[in-house]
Amino acid sequence: MELTTLLQAIAPADRRAEELAQRRWDSIAKPLGSLGRLEAAVVRIAGMRGTPQVSIRRRALVIMCADNGVVAEGVTQTGQEVTAAVTENFTRGATSVCAMARVAGCDLYPVDIGVAADLGDCPGLIRHKVARGTRNLLWEPAMTRPQAEDALCFGAQLAQELAGQGYELLATGEMGIGNTTTSSAMAAVLLDRPVEEVTGRGAGLSTPGLRRKVEVIRAAIARHRPDPNDPLDVLAKVGGLDIAGLTGVFLGAAAARLPVLVDGFISAVAALAAVRLCPAAADYLLASHISQEPAAAMLLEALGLSPFICADMRLGEGSGAVAAMPLLEMALAVYREMCTFQETEIEAYQPLK
């Protein structure tokens, strides 16, 4: 799949379907708008799918797994061996998000898009290793532009394959030691904000570690000068293969008219890259939660999204997106099953002026 063809396949959401879904909400025998953002999400999903008959019963989480060469600069608490271990655990159902997904009725699709180690027998692991991790972005571009495009297009292809299999809702997750560094670097460029404003402690850096992280990102941006008007250039120079893959998932889902739950900080960076490549892709995004990373709120504001959950989560793996799934399903239960004002012969609520 070529990037140009992918972008041309993305159309805006169906506003007529949104209007019909809003009429359904307004007819239900309850106070108008009383489920807040959950109602708005159902309306938006109707527009994405092109019908007010909304369903998200089949749902999947795509987890992009990749390593980052910048860990050599002491910007993380742990080493790259953790990426491989957790990636393998996804296939065994032995991570936090696996437990959450079992409750939420969500299928998992872990992807080795750039893990440095060779992974052994991992049933269910999707393998598309673009490289054995990225290069150290402090000294050289993280990857080549063709590598970034390869990861992006694979993510898009996977999203479209899942749509073809009948999935009705996708969610994004990631695993990669060092990826809050790459995400902060991309956020600084795409948002045009100072590095120190968009950089947090990740999985738990000390104060000296945080200072080092900021120094490394600032130096990398100064050295490589990524073009904020060219998201693929930003991905290649200071991003990661996991972020590139997720960018593709957002674009592929949009081309397939499939809603996608954005997880936390890292997924939001990928979502912003996708929207900068194709503004219409914004119509297919739903924000699950707001993470504790400093740039999380800035990214959601740039995307025009409001999260369902504010619970100080920072686990990663797609956990916030999976946590939002039962909330959406409960909202849909009301949307589909509640009686209307007309059926109950109760006088309908009127919008407040």
Question: What features would you describe in this structure?
Answer:
The longest helix is centred in the middle third of the chain and has 20 residues, at 145-164. The chain has helices spanning 3-8, 15-27, 36-49, 81-92, 96-104, 145-164, 179-191, 195-198, 207-224, 231-238, 241-255, 265-277, 296-303, 319-337, 341-344; strands at 59-66, 106-114, 126-127, 169-175, 260-262, 285-287. Helix 6 (145-164) crosses helix 10 (231-238) and helix 6 (145-164) packs across helix 11 (241-255). Helix 12 links the parallel strand 5 (260-262) and strand 6. With 353 residues, it is an alpha/beta fold.
Give the key terms:
353 residues; alpha/beta; six-stranded parallel sheet; 50% helix; globular; glycosyltransferase
**Number of beta strands:** 6
Beta-strand percentage range: 5-15%
CA-based gyration radius? 20 Å
Low-confidence stretches: none
Tell me about the largest β-sheet: 6 strands, parallel
Listing every helix as H and every strand as E from the N terminus to the C terminus, the arrangement reads HHHEHHEEHEHHHHHEHEHHH
The shape, in one word, is globular
The neighbouring-strand order within the major sheet is 3-2-1-4-5-6
Helix/strand/pairing category: alpha/beta
C-alpha termini separation: 50 Å
Count every helix, treating DSSP H or I runs of 4 or more residues as helices: 15
Mean pLDDT: 95
InterPro entries: Nict_dMeBzImd_PRibTrfase (IPR003200), Nict_dMeBzImd_PRibTrfase_bact (IPR017846), Nict_dMeBzImd_PRibTrfase_N (IPR023195), Nict_dMeBzImd_PRibTrfase_sf (IPR036087)
GO molecular function: nicotinate-nucleotide-dimethylbenzimidazole phosphoribosyltransferase activity
Keywords: Cobalamin biosynthesis, Glycosyltransferase, Transferase
Catalytic activity: 5,6-dimethylbenzimidazole + nicotinate beta-D-ribonucleotide = alpha-ribazole 5'-phosphate + nicotinate + H(+)
